[in-house]
Amino acid sequence: MTTGRIHSWDLSTGVDGPGTRFVLFLSGCQLRCLYCANPDTWHMRDGMPVTVDEVVGRIERYRQFTTLAGGGVTLTGGEPLLQSAFTAEVFRRCKELGLHTALDTSGALGTRAEDALLADTDLVLLDIKSFDAGVYMHLTGGRLAPTLNFATRLNRLGVPTWIRYVLVPGWTDDPAAIDGLGRFLAELDNVDRVDVLPFHKLGTHKYDSLGIPFPLRDNPVPDAALVERVRDQFRSHGLRAR
């Protein structure tokens, strides 16, 4: 029986895919994004062990509610593709129940997503942290190329995708890098929209409770003018940005 490790679950509306959704937070992430709001999901060993049956049983309790609200199930983290077999089995069972599925991922482990998993994925929420490879490395500790390769593969397979772009002043607000990403995304037919997400510090207390430093504690958050400027840059490439 397929098992996984999860941090928690929640119900949300509007931020984790269409409608009201059952959101499952998986434990474990190989990246260390400087702005991460969920450092308590980094280590798989800290998660609660569960079976697919246990997860699906809980999902079924909210099936009627999420379906009537035009929603479904979102797997996030952490990084769901760190537990790709578990993610694939949960999605397969969700599709048997007729539920809409969304995968929230950095794409850095996109090679772990087999075609069968993506066939059971109705929507990918693809987090592209930066279009500058150097900034990406400093910001996340990982490489940009795997994420772009995954984006290209999603386009080839025709998997609907929403792009998530966290706007961090001094890190991801460079106009040239944003225009580069805009040009890249404009070539992909499967990208429905780009969500520009303002950097926030709501997870600061988690760092404090874990006794680890929050690297961007003193970094400013973006103002409304900067957020709109970046959205307009994406729009200038024919993309729907919000």
TrEMBL record:
Keywords per UniProt: 4Fe-4S, Cytoplasm, Iron, Iron-sulfur, Lyase, Metal-binding, Oxidoreductase, Pyruvate, S-adenosyl-L-methionine
CDD domains according to UniProt: Radical_SAM
Places the protein is found: Cytoplasm
SUPFAM superfamilies on file: Radical SAM enzymes (SSF102114)
Cofactor requirement: [4Fe-4S] cluster
Entry function: Activation of pyruvate formate-lyase under anaerobic conditions by generation of an organic free radical, using S-adenosylmethionine and reduced flavodoxin as cosubstrates to produce 5'-deoxy-adenosine.
Record's protein name: Pyruvate formate-lyase-activating enzyme
